[in-house]
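Hey L., structure's done. Input below.
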Amino acid sequence: MGKTLVLAEKPSVARDIARVLGCRQSGNGCIIGPKHIVTWALGHLVTLADPEVYDGKYQTWKLDDLPMLPKQMRLVVIKQTSKQFKAVSALLRSPDTKELVIATDAGREGELVARWIMQKAGFKGTARRLWISSQTDAAIKAGFQNLRPASNYDNLYHSAQARSEADWLVGLNATRALTCKYNASLSAGRVQTPTLSLIVSREEEILKFRPKDYYTVRARFGEFAATYRDQNGNARFSRKEHADEIAAAARGGRAVLSEVKKEYKHSPPPAAYDLTELQRDANRKYAYSAKQTLSLMQSLYETHKLLTYPRTDSRYITDDVVLTLPDRLKAVAVGPYRDAAQKILRSGPVATKYIVNNSKVDDHHAIIPTDQFVNLSALSREERNIFDLVVRRFFAVLSPAFEYEEVSLRLTVGKSCFYAKGKTVLKPGWKELYGQSDEDEDEDGNDSGRLPRLKQGDALSVSACDVTAGKTKPPARYTEATLLTAIENPSGQVDDRALKDILESTSGLGTPATRADIIEKLFGSFCIERRGKEIHPTSKGKQLVSIVPSDLKSAELTAKWERRLKLIESGQASGFEFTSDMREYAARLVREIIASDSKFTHDNITREKCPDCGKFLLDVNGKKGKMLICPDRDCGYRKSVSVITNARCPNCHKKLEMRGEGDKKMFFCVCGHREKLSDFESRRKTTGAGKRDVEKYLQSQKSQGGSGNTALADQLAKWLES
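Output:
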């Protein structure tokens, strides 16, 4: 009697399923049990073949060979994970395999992962589908009791396959056409090009912006201040003379409190984290890149097992996860989180409407802590920062709303009206977890803090009245945090209301799992560069957007694709027809690029020649410093000129830049400090251990079997946070 083979998407998920099914014996790329064998992919094991697989002529990039339109797309095994594919393939072809249970992620991409493996391995047996939205033991058991025929998901697979083939046809043809036409390494795609277009468009807005002067009038009434507003509610004057007149008339005058309005308000807690929101907050607070945050999350998920699956676009959990919340709270009730966790456990019930919503969970629920015991000293400083964000957000979403009373005042001074508002905190609720102040101020200087007790009709003296000058500000450049928001909600690039709705109901451009790679690709291709936290387009990026066909610059293309892919998924349209249309579209793009009279010039060319091919090198700002690169795509020569290091200046404490090679390496700082590498190393030896050394020490203690819970380890961990 054969066994049931279960194919999961990741080893960690496979281990969870294996434990529930009673599989304990390790095999070659699998875990074996009495009735089941659980195996896994490593993400994708199989992918679409590169162009040269179809025809050897494609190894050389030529305009004459475009467009590349294979009649039948081929699959190839990914070289880096070929060992695991061989193990999975052997199990799929084994005569002992009674049936297959597809247990990859419940979604479009998860279906594609499994079906391509099955197709490449030649699997022809019976297959059923495990469709669950969380990885708890209860959910896995319930899922195996309700397995569905794999054929129920054929249309989902056809949709995923059509999307993947379309991206191949459009992206590879457009990239080769641009690169060959302009003799430069240029890349285009359905997601990366609209993302680059967002950055370039913002830069154009900033360059075109012309600041305008404005003036506001603020009057003080002893303990508080109020802002003048006209009958239309405007606080700004374009003419200083007008503002001066209002201020002069109010100075030394008497005000009557003509209106006091009190209103109860409450602010519900924020939703739990999905990956994009976590990446945004990590970038705002710690300046981590989206890629770095995802990497840290993967470590906390796979290595430490402290957080749930990171690549999720949901901010809610399902009913079956609610029962596990007390155990999760108990697990994180350590160190700085003990009091908050115990307070939530005592207050009960734990679950709230702000976190539980079955209808808003697709493949995976929100990112929350697991019930794994937490050893904070085993985490690096960066891991602790991400863990802290998730735990505090988890506490917040389980906490009551922030309740306050908002007070609005209108004060009349002669014919002028001044306005002030403030708030009185009734219950701090979830904001207590962040130590947030209840005072705020808008850009026109309106107080939102505490006001004295006043009643309508009170008379007050104007103690001072001043005119403040200001200038209108251009839109801010994107940071990774704000760019992630723009990629997630790109409907501003689309005019059609129906297409806007499609983008708003899906995940926008890309997916939570791919957005970090898209941004990194734009950095890596030198289309954008980072200056501080801000993202600037390079000359290459600006020129690329100007020469790319207009269709590829907008999120509208993604919206149109999603509309048709949804029809394929529901069985109302054909995946074959969609791919055929994409072949025609790719051919049109190539014709448009070839016929274009646009120009591309390297304005960062140096007089230093490439040692390999002799072409003049380009001076670029890489992610970690300045580089010289060869413009020839086939050559690929790169040379580091300077690197931004983690070493700190002894004077201003900013990161030092390293230049030079070998014995001539030197550190440079923007403040003017210079130091030889040898002098720096000597100084470092005399100053003792730094935070990096402490982290290495704690990690070594853990690897040697130490618990890491000693008083010394706890104190060192606290110091790392300082």
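Residues 154-182 form the longest helix (29 residues). DSSP finds 23 helices and 26 strands in the chain.

-- N.
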